[in-house]
Each structure stands twice: as C-alpha cells, then as structure tokens.
Amino acid sequence: MAEEAAPHVLLICYPGQGHINPMIRLAKRIASKGLLVTCSSSSIVRDKLAAASGVSAGGDGVLVGRGRIRFDFLDDHFDGTELDLHNFLRHLETAGRLALAGLLGRQAEAGRPVACIVGNPFLPWATDVAAEAGIPSAVLWVQSCAVFSIYYHFVHGLAEFPREDDPDARFALPGLPALSVADVPSFLLASHPYKVLGDTIQDQFRNMGKASWVFVNSFAELERDVIAALPGVRPRPPQLIPVGPLVELGGHDDDGGVAVRGDLIRAADDCVGWLDAQAPRSVVYASVGSIVMLPAEAVAEMAHGLASSGRPFLWVVRPDTRALLPEGFLDAAAGRGMVVPWSPQDRVLAHAAVACFLTHCGWNSTLETIAAGVPVVAFPQWGDQCTDAKFLVDVLKMGVHLRAPLRREAVREAVEAVTTGPEAGAMLANARSWSAAARAAVAPGGSSDRHVQAFVDEVSRRARGGRAKHLRLVNGRTIP
C-alpha cells in the first residue's frame, strides 16, 4: 500500500518583511511536525524570497524535520508598476482572490490538495476564498495580543478612546495597563497618513469569524493578563492561540537544520565577524526596521548620538536612507562603528557583544530582543510600535523610552540609562528572565509548541476524515 500523503497547509501573507518573517517561521514549525507546508505571497516578492529562502518557487521544497516546506506564489499579474498603498492593497484583493483560487486548483491537480489556509491581517479576503472553496482557514495575527484587544474594542465600539488633542487622558481595557493616545496603534488615529492600513486590519476583524483558528505571534506567559481577559469581552472575540515567539532563537535554525530565511534585503556578511572583535556587552545595535523612514534631521541626530555614546555601534541604515547620513560621518565613524544596509538581526541580538538595542519596536524586533534577552531603547514611530514600546518599557521593564523629536543628547542619555545607569542591572535581569520564558514556550512541550502540535493533530484528523469520506463515496459508486 502506498504511503499516505501528509496533509497540506498553505500559508499566505502580505508581501512585507514584517509579515514574511513570522509566516516562514510558523511554516517551519508546522512542517517540522510532519506536514507539507506551502508559503505564498504576491508575485512581487517571488524572486527575492526564493533567493533569500534558498527554495525555488513551485518545486517540491526541502525537508524540515519530519515534513517539507515549499514556495508557490500568486499569479496576480503584478507588473512592477509603482502604486500607492491604497491602490496596491486594492490590486492585491482584486487579483489575489482569483489568483488564490487558481493556486488551490493547481495544488489539487498536482496531487497535494490544501487541507487548511492560513492568512494574515492585510489579506482579509483570504478567509473568504477559503470559505468559498470549502477549506478550513486560520489567521496568523502578526502583532501582539494587546494590540489585538485594542483593535477589537475599537471595531466593536466597546471603549471610548481618548482624543488626539488630549495626551494626558488615560483609558483602560481588560487585562491591559492604563493607556494614553500615544500608546494606541496610530493606524486608528484620524491624523495618520496610512489610515488605509487600519481600515484593512479592521476588515479582517469583521470576517475573522470564518476562521477556525486565530493564531497570534506571542506566547502565553508574555501576555497572560490580556489573554485571560479577552474571553470576558462581549461580543466575545475569537480565542487567541499563541504560537510564538516566531523568531530564530539564537541565530540558529532549530527545525531540522534547514536555514530557510525570508530577508528581502541582503544582510551584510561581516556583521557577526565585526561583533566577534568587540568586548562583551559593549555594542549599541540600532535599527528602525524595513519600512520606517526617518527624516534627515532625525538620521543626523541619531548618527551624532551614537557616535557620542562612547561605545562601538552597529547601525542598520537601509540603502534608501544612506544619503541622509551627515557628510563625512562614515569616515569619522570608521573604527568605532559599523553601518550596514541590513543585518542578520537574530544573530546580532544573540551575540555576546551586544549591550542594547535601539529599536523602532516593530513586533518582530520586539520579540527578537525579548528572546535574546537584550535591553532596549524604545523609539517607536507609528502603528503597533507605539503599543509595543509601552509594554517593553512600562510592563516588561526592560528598557527606556526615546522620545521624538530626536536629539543627540537624548540618544546618548538613553544608551547610558540601559547600559550603565542605576536601573540598568534590573533591566538586564528582566530581559534575561523574559528570554528564558520565550525559549521555554517554543521548546518541546512548551506552551506555544503544544498549540502548534494541537493544530497539526487537528488538521491531520480532519484530512483523514475527508479522505475516509471520499473513499466511501467512491466505493459506494464502484462496488456493487
């Protein structure tokens, strides 16, 4: 008798770095437990992602643990035309619905029908396509449980949010500390220029009931209070299933030795070698992620602040920002600092030379620094970064705020506060404690690992039931 094919799960995400990273990491964890997993996104990232992952698109993929991971992309006819965010999201939905349906058809024809589709918040229509195809679906929420709760209360009108012109006002939600308007995801503010992103996320909340599972890139121990409080909210939100932190722990792949990555920007090869030459806990690592664009004045102030800290620094300055560096800065900083277009951040944060992380507080970066146990200088810009910074500093107590407008003196003082200040020792101890909790959550038998295993078991059970039903129908027609 031929060996029964493994159930097939399709993960599809928005073509942004902050969405691709957790998608690939969840895919690897699911695959490692024996399933076939396909990662998908818009054709706009096909070539970059295939090159970064080392997995050719459309092929059989590679072994990861007891399963396989492969890539296949939407035939969404994106021609590379520059579109504003609103029109790009509209194009993704218009072309993506048909393209996803076509992708599902191709998988079935190839003998690997999809047993479950996992989408994410910027593709709310993916659950509609799954429902129309009669395929169970899940949503991977790529932000925190706290941010989920804030959006949920906003969408359903369950709380009165403070006005933008009242920075001193505070409001409370179940399981969360008192929040101000500065702590709210800025996509919900009327003044935010990317309100379309907030609208798209809200659309996801309105059809999330179609999903059988709602995963969240967090872990139960990190957000215990908000997870415990959500079931008491009315109307009752879907149950959140923590499966994180979806990060590479310690810079090493732990899913069968396959280093499948999703960096859309090539990381500098010499980062780790440079860190090897630095003293333990001496380096300031700074990065504002893949999207944030700082104004020229802020870039200059950060440059001077890092240089005046008296510490070696590793600073990620993307190619689209490099021209904003002060004239002569690179030459002046040579020998004391390293400026790179992108870094292997998980490996950098895990390095013994890194003392602190000046971060924009994107959720992926937040989880990476938590997992690594590195204190932070929190410099949020917009979106959920504002909420993440609040939790890093005031709840987890593993860093300090760096407020806008940015000033070089403030950069230097913040670095000193988290490295040698009176509270630096406590911040480091807290960071290391959270690191231990994060690693325990994803270790075999940990809280997040159990949730992933339960999902794999349920998909496998449903797939077996579907095959058994199909065989009965076939036998009923062919056997007299």
Give the helices and strands, then pairings:
Blueprint: E1 8-12, H1 17-31, E2 36-40, H2 46-53, E3 62-64, E4 67-71, H3 85-109, E5 114-119, H4 125-133, E6 137-141, H5 145-155, H6 195-207, E7 213-216, H7 224-229, E8 240-242, H8 271-276, E9 283-287, H9 296-307, E10 313-316, H10 329-333, E11 337-340, H11 345-349, E12 354-359, H12 363-372, E13 376-378, H13 385-395, E14 399-401, H14 408-419, H15 424-442, H16 447-478
Parallel strand pairs: 1-2, 1-5, 2-4, 5-6, 6-7, 7-8, 9-10, 9-12, 10-11, 12-13, 13-14
Antiparallel strand pairs: 3-4
Helix pairs in contact: 3-4, 9-14, 12-15, 14-15
Protein name: Glycosyltransferase
Family: Belongs to the UDP-glycosyltransferase family.
Keywords: Glycosyltransferase, Transferase
- Main-sheet strand order equals 3-4-2-1-5-6-7-8
Q: The CATH topology of the largest domain, please? A: Rossmann fold
Tally the beta strands: 14
Radius of gyration: 23 Å
Structure description:
The protein is globular. It is 41% helix and 13% strand. It has an eight-stranded mixed sheet with strand order 3-4-2-1-5-6-7-8, sandwiched between helices. The chain has a six-stranded parallel sheet with strand order 11-10-9-12-13-14, with helices on both faces. The chain starts with 7 loop residues before the first strand and ends with a helix. The protein folds into two domains: 290 residues, 3-Layer(aba) Sandwich (Rossmann fold); 170 residues, Rossmann fold, CATH 3.40.50.2000. The C terminus is likely disordered. The protein contains 16 helices and 14 strands. Helix 9 crosses helix 14 and helix 12 packs across helix 15. The protein is α/β, with parallel strands linked by helices.
